[in-house]
């Protein structure tokens, strides 16, 4: 009993060291907060992320393994730094660095899915997952690899959210707890067997499909064998094998998957710096050189580190939510112009010079202003990424061609208005 009381008091003392700035996520098994450490003199340091995980549900054990490994001197390039890990009653509390950057989902949305993006991101992602598998004995299995759990910054890629990660147990027949995101989690994660390194291989295959298409993999995609016009046949075969239902048919390790990816891109002439595709589409990510002294000795030299790019297709780059809001505003402006044009065509004011003109003349004078002049301008300044997802062929249209089409439409509109104006009766006295 005294030991339990001491443990509770210690947990309370640690909790009191942090000021809660915001609750980022709250659920039945996990609460995530953004916190700041408050020193004895009132000075604050942070931000950090603090998680309370349900210990009875078997969550959070991976954080403790990572924390102990980091305290023992291990350095990981692609895992968050754990500041503290302790028991808080029936929960496990974890305090870690607040990883900055964009999620993979946001990057793919902002830059558009492409072969160039996959060539830059996927090898680094494989390297990150290999840290979990090769850096621990027995391996750590993440079990929840998905676009929102991959963070990209200008200098690194970091895997986050190890709440349902587990240690591989050679003697177990299946996982004790069945968690995961169904679109990216393998069948064995839901009762068909025990998860191992090939379970993360499955998730990586699905992430590769996402990088190439921006589609969440579903049953239809798997049934079609992941066939898509944007996926070369060589890479389609890699995805299909990585995501095989039977773990025995998948790649044995992430390293083997990474080699297969490199071989497939090379065979298709799509590797960075070679082949027509590389020449036609510039890489979305730059690869800054990391000084040799900054590389931990226990890890091999990292491959090209992705830097969040400036998409060559979009002069203006904004976040997904702001982009949708901007499109809604532009759509409202366009609707207003169409409504005004319709009113002037079908219900002109008596003082309107074109009120006595035939209906067809009024239509040819006012509708081109809204449809051929205002419309193309609004389209060109809009965030066209949602439209490209609905009509994938638009992703292959360059902004220069879009500008040319919009300019032609504008000129046609001006000509139509000018010609229609010749048929509008002149006011008396002219």
Number of domains: 3
Oligomeric state? single chain
| Strand order, sheet with most strands | 1-2-3-5-4
Cα radius of gyration in angstroms: 28 Å
Topology as H/E string?
Answer: HEEEHEEEHHEEEEHHHHHHHHH
Number of DSSP helices?
Answer: 13
CATH architecture of the largest domain: Orthogonal Bundle
Could you say which overall geometry the principal axes of the C-alpha atoms support?
elongated
Helix content: 40-55%
- What is the count of β-strands? 10
What is the CATH superfamily label of the largest domain?
Transferase(Phosphotransferase) domain 1
Strand portion:
5-15%
Structural class by sheet pairing and helices? alpha+beta
Mean pLDDT: 79
Unreliable sequence segments: 171-176, 272-316
Note the main sheet.
Answer: 5 strands, antiparallel
* CATH domain class of the largest domain: Mainly Alpha
The name CATH uses for the topology of the largest domain is Transferase(Phosphotransferase), domain 1
N- and C-termini, Cα separation: 104 Å
Describe the structure.
By secondary structure, the chain is of the alpha+beta class. It has three domains: 1-97, 2-Layer Sandwich (Phosphorylase Kinase, domain 1); 102-168 and 180-268, Transferase(Phosphotransferase) domain 1 (Transferase(Phosphotransferase), domain 1, Orthogonal Bundle), CATH 1.10.510; 321-423. It has 13 helices and ten strands. The chain has helices at residues 2-16, 61-71, 104-111, 115-134, 197-213, 219-223, 233-242, 254-267, 275-280, 320-346, 359-380, 385-390, 399-421, and strands at 18-26, 30-38, 44-54, 82-88, 91-97, 102-103, 140-141, 150-152, 157-159, 166-167. It has a five-stranded antiparallel β-sheet with strand order 1-2-3-5-4, sandwiched between helices. α4 packs antiparallel against α5 (197-213), α10 (320-346) packs antiparallel against α11 (359-380) and α11 packs antiparallel against α13. Residues 18-262 form the Protein kinase domain.
């Amino acid at each position: 009993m005294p030991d339990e009381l001491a443990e509770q008091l210690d947990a309370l003392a640690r909790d009191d060291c942090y000021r809660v700035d915001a609750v980022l996520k709250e659920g039945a098994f996990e609460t995530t907060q953004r916190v700041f450490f408050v020193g004895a003199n009132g000075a604050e340091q942070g931000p950090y992320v603090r998680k309370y995980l349900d210990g009875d549900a078997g969550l959070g054990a991976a954080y403790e393994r990572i924390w102990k490994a980091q305290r023992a001197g291990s350095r990981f390039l692609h895992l968050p730094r754990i500041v503290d890990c302790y028991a808080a009653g029936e929960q496990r509390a974890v305090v870690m660095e607040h990883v900055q950057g964009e999620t993979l989902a946001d990057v793919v949305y902002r830059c558009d899915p492409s072969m160039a993006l996959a060539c830059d991101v996927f090898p680094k992602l494989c390297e990150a997952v290999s840290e979990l598998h090769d850096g621990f004995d027995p391996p750590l299995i993440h079990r929840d690899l998905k676009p929102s759990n991959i963070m990209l910054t200008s200098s690194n890629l970091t895997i986050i959210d190890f709440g349902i990660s587990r240690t591989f147990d050679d003697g177990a027949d299946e996982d004790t707890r069945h968690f995961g995101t169904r679109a990216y989690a393998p069948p064995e994660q839901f009762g068909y067997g025990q998860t191992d390194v090939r379970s993360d291989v499955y998730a990586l295959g699905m992430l590769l499909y996402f990088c190439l298409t921006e589609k969440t993999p579903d049953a239809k995609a798997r049934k079609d064998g992941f066939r898509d016009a944007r996926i070369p046949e060589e890479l389609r075969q890699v995805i299909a094998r990585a995501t095989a239902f039977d773990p025995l048919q998948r790649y044995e390790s992430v390293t083997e998957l990474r080699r297969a990816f490199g071989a497939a891109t090379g065979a298709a002439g799509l590797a960075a710096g070679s082949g027509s595709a590389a020449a036609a589409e510039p890489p979305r990510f730059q690869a800054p050189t990391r000084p040799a002294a900054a590389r931990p000795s226990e890890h091999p030299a990292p491959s090209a580190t992705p830097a969040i790019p400036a998409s060559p297709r979009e002069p203006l780059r904004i976040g997904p939510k702001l982009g949708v809001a901007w499109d809604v505003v532009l759509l409202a402006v366009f609707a207003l112009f169409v409504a005004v044009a319709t009113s002037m065509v079908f219900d002109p004011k008596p003082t309107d010079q074109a009120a006595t003109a035939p209906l067809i003349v009024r239509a040819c004078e006012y509708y081109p202003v809204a449809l051929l002049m205002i419309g193309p301008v609004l389209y060109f300044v809009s965030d066209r990424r949602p439209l490209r997802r609905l009509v994938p062929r638009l992703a292959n249209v360059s902004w220069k061609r879009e500008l040319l089409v919009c300019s032609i439409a504008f000129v046609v509109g001006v000509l139509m208005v000018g010609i229609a104006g010749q048929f509008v009766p002149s006011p008396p006295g002219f």
